[in-house]
Amino acid sequence: FTGAAQWVPHDGGMRKVTATLPDCRGCDLYEYADQVVPGEGRVRARMMLIGEQPGDVEDKEGHVFVGPAGRLLDKALVEAGIERSEVFLTNAVKHFRFERQGKRRIHKTPSAGQIVACRPWLDRELEIVKPGLVVILGAVAARALLGPGFKVTEHRGRSVELPDGRAALATVHPSAVVRSQEYRRDFARFVDDLRAARELLP
Ligand code: URA
Ligand code: SF4
């Protein structure tokens, strides 16, 4: 596997990206997942939020952030005063990676190689959407965009610049809040970070 570049269209818009994604054989993940999950939302959004990879529910339904993490994200966006319909939502990796435990499929973090392999899709989405602000949700998206040295917990809620000069802000992944032992505190902090992102919008 040599990465997604040869499948990513150089012309056309988001419809073409969505239409060509199912052909991708850029890494091994397409073999196990039910389907690829494309980014969704407003194509000319000012804000693009980037998660990790589809979860179990997203893989079955074919849409981003429709499972437990998505419900939490929806709630947090409302509290932060951000309309889901106004943003573009996508993932660093477009196929679900999991381990089977009996009948259950347990999320497995994508490898560094899979994150790099999928990056050309993310680059194309960024080229098309041209967001004024990128919101990085969690360590995998941070790794994809800022490299392995960036620590979300150290820099969360503050503006950072991507290597290509784009403005960004990193926060935790909503699934980390779903699982938190200190849910109320961590949900409030997540909302604070999203509010800070809204204030950074150009
Ligand atoms: N987690 C993600 O990072 N993305 C989704 O689409 C769902 C859960
Ligand atoms: Fe292609 Fe990304 Fe799916 Fe790998 S995870 S097959 S690179 S779309």
TrEMBL record:
Give me any GO biological process, just one: DNA repair
UniProt xrefs under SUPFAM superfamilies: Uracil-DNA glycosylase-like
Residues forming the Uracil-DNA glycosylase-like domain are 38-195
GO MF annotation list: 4 iron, 4 sulfur cluster binding; deaminated base DNA N-glycosylase activity; metal ion binding
Question: Which Gene3D superfamilies does this entry report, sorted A to Z?
Answer: Uracil-DNA glycosylase-like domain
Keywords attached to this Swiss-Prot or TrEMBL record, sorted alphabetically, are:
4Fe-4S, DNA damage, DNA repair, Hydrolase, Iron, Iron-sulfur, Metal-binding
A Pfam family for this UniProt protein? Answer: UDG
Q: Which PANTHER family match?
A: TYPE-4 URACIL-DNA GLYCOSYLASE, TYPE-5 URACIL-DNA GLYCOSYLASE
Which family does the entry's similarity section mention? Belongs to the uracil-DNA glycosylase (UDG) superfamily. Type 4 (UDGa) family.
UniProt protein name: Type-4 uracil-DNA glycosylase
Organism, by scientific name, is Kribbella pittospori
Species lineage, top-down?
Bacteria, Bacillati, Actinomycetota, Actinomycetes, Propionibacteriales
